[in-house]
Amino acid sequence: MTFGLSKESQASLTKQHTLFSFDIFRTFLRDNASENLIFSPLALYLNLCSIESGARGEAFFTLEDKLGQSAIPPEQLFPYFTELNEKLSHPPLSTMFKVSNTLWIKNGIAIRPEYTKTISGMFGSEIKPFSAGAPAKYRQHQSFVAIGNVQFKTRFFYPFEVDKLVDKTFYTADNGTTSLPMMVQEGQYWYLNGNGFQAIALPLSGKKLSLYIFVPDTSFRSFLGKFTAYSWERWLNQFKLKSGIITIPKFSLSTEVSCKDPLKKLGYGSLFNKKTDFTGIIGSGQLTLDTLVQKVDCTFEETRYSAGESATELQLNGSEKPFTFTANKPFIFVVKDNSSGNILIMGLVVNPS
Predict the structure, then answer these.
(1) Distance (Å) of CA 199 to CA 173, 202, 240
(2) Phi-psi sector, 207: left (phi>0), alpha (psi -120 to 50), beta
(3) Gap between the Cα atoms of 277 and 193, Å rounded
(4) What is the largest CA-CA distance in the chain?
(5) What is the 8-class DSSP label of residue 52?
(6) E strand or H helix at 207, and its extent?
(7) Helices 7-31 & 74-89, crossing angle to 10 degrees?
(8) HEC-encoded secondary structure of 84-138
(9) Residue 17: inside a domain, yes or no?
(10) Distance between alpha carbon 345 and the CA centroid of its chain, in Å?
(11) At residue 146, what are phi and psi to the nearest 5 degrees?
(12) How far apart (Å, rounded) are the C-alpha atoms in residues 272 and 261?
């Protein structure tokens, strides 16, 4: 059993979460692949689970099916989400993954106390009236908005030396260029030289998380067509430990995305219908989900080596020619939890500056 689930149920949920992650990410990028994008599939999934708990009828069954829960007994789901929420509250050393999902509803509507307790205990979510501090730009909505805030901050397990940054050219998505400080490191890495792309996997704090960076050789649009959940699972088994020299830009991102239109395109339209039944939240009356937004702040810290910190794993293997990996043009990155397989963060970097 894992997180209160049988192995079969855990595998099923992880697979569904991966499908969800890639489907929503690709849908975001179809609309706009010319700007930096970052979002947390896991945080969005948990926000949808909170909404599912208060939905009834068509919206509930749509969410139950698309979130991969229809075949899993409720007595297994409750401890799974409770333990997952607890794990997210205590991330690996030197890592912060803080998810704050809040459902805001118009003032004067009575909220069912059992609903408040359920979403807090299972998903770490809150529900509040607009008057309790909803962002000003969302207070004009008539009924109900869901806002997710995610803060992710971590360190590379093998830190880059900040005093050895090198200014290099980055080729932006609009065919421009910009000079950026790049971090350079050499050693042995999990590397994949794929069909039309290169990828690297870097361990993050405590080696409990991994950062995957994918750099297309030519057309980004062409690569996006290959970037599916199926390909992801296949590629994970193709990474090999090889000697190489890697060059990546320093980057910290902060973006806010509206998830409403992408979710509607993926078949979640019943969530936003004016007649959707949310009596699990309010008991009686009508509530309409006006919008669903997520804001993510993401930082990868590089730290100067201390004495003895350069581990054997980072030494070049003199018997093989090292590969060269340079992220000097738009790239995709994925942060994966190594124990569960869940994807915490996905992003597109078109201009690190």
Answers:
(1) 19, 10, 11
(2) left
(3) 49
(4) 72
(5) H
(6) none
(7) 60
(8) HHHHHHCCCCCCEEEEEEEEEECCCCCCCHHHHHHHHHHHCCEEEEHHHCCCHHH
(9) no
(10) 2
(11) -115, 125
(12) 10
pLDDT tens sequence across 53-82: 999 999 999 998 988 887 777 667 777 777
- Helix or strand holding residue 218 (H, E): none
Domain containing 44 equals 35-153+254-298
What is the per-residue pLDDT across 99-126, written as a single tens digit (0 to 9) for each?
999 999 988 889 999 999 999 988 889 9
Residue at 20 is within a domain: no
Q: Are residues 123 and 56 in the same domain?
A: yes
Rounded Cα–Cα distance for residues 167 and 182 (Å): 6
State the CATH number of the domain containing residue 315.
Answer: 2.30.39.10
Q: Are residues 270 and 326 in the same domain?
A: no
* Pair 72, 128 in one domain: yes
3-state DSSP helix/strand/coil % of the chain, to nearest 5: 35, 35, 30
In this structure, what CATH number is given to the domain that contains residue 258? 3.30.497.10
Number of domains observed in the structure of the chain: 2
Mean pLDDT per segment of 10 residues, for the chain of length 353 residues?
Answer: 68 88 93 87 93 93 88 73 74 80 91 94 91 84 88 89 86 87 92 95 90 90 89 96 93 91 94 92 88 94 54 56 93 92 93 85
Question: Which one-letter amino acid corresponds to residue 6?
Answer: S
